[in-house]
Design the sequence.
């Protein structure tokens, strides 16, 4: 299959059988055999229920978790990172409904969208550089999908760097730092440590630190 055929009609989502990264394609094929009831495919962006024109905030993670989004088919759904992220989104009015870590729990995003820099689950949660670069075409198209996008939150260094490159900017000019906010070509770029269990268990990221980033985002969006 060609690179062009790997794109959905909208350009922002890879097809279920996307072959662009052979290692990830094969890894997913293996898990389809082991867990046939799981989603086991590139995980699509979760977007605001009211439509793309309402999205002002995009949150970019690293990649689907094996037993999280790879299992459920919705970003940050099914593992600890989602518990912290969705509760924070709800706190600041970026979602409605009760998060129960299932794609059918009825949660809707309001003015926000969730995606990943790499759409397929990587072995050991570690995509390689070529996979990150290859999948960036979908991240670039996702950013372009939202005509009223004003802010992006990047979760972790890899997501941050891939987002900077997707915006056509130089990583050296936009180094990752938790809690940083920079103007990135007319979009406010906020960065946070990833809300993974490892980061919270080690104290690298506290709930207060994470909430603080989204409080600043909400204040920014309401300031203009």
Sequence:
């Amino acid at each position: 299959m060609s690179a062009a055929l790997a794109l959905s009609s909208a350009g922002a989502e890879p097809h279920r059988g996307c072959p662009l990264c052979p290692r990830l394609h094969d890894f997913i094929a293996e898990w389809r055999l082991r867990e046939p009831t799981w989603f086991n495919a590139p995980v699509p962006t979760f977007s605001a229920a009211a439509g793309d024109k309402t999205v002002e905030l995009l949150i970019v993670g690293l990649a689907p978790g094996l037993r999280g989004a790879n299992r459920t088919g919705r970003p940050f759904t099914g593992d600890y990172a989602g518990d912290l992220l969705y509760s924070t989104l709800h706190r600041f009015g970026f979602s409605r409904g009760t998060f129960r870590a299932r794609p059918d729990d009825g949660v809707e995003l309001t003015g926000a969208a969730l995606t990943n820099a790499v759409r397929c689950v990587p072995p050991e949660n570690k995509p390689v550089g070529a996979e990150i670069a290859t999948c960036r075409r979908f991240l670039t198209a996702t950013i372009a999908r939202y005509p009223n996008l004003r802010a992006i939150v990047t979760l972790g260094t890899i997501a941050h760097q891939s987002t900077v490159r997707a915006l056509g900017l130089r990583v050296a000019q936009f180094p990752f730092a938790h809690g940083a906010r920079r103007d990135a070509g007319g979009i406010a770029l906020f960065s946070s440590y990833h809300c993974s269990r490892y980061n919270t268990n080690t104290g690298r990221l506290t709930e207060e630190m994470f909430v603080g980033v989204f409080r600043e985002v909400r204040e920014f969006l309401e300031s203009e």
In short: DSSP finds eight helices and eight strands in the chain.
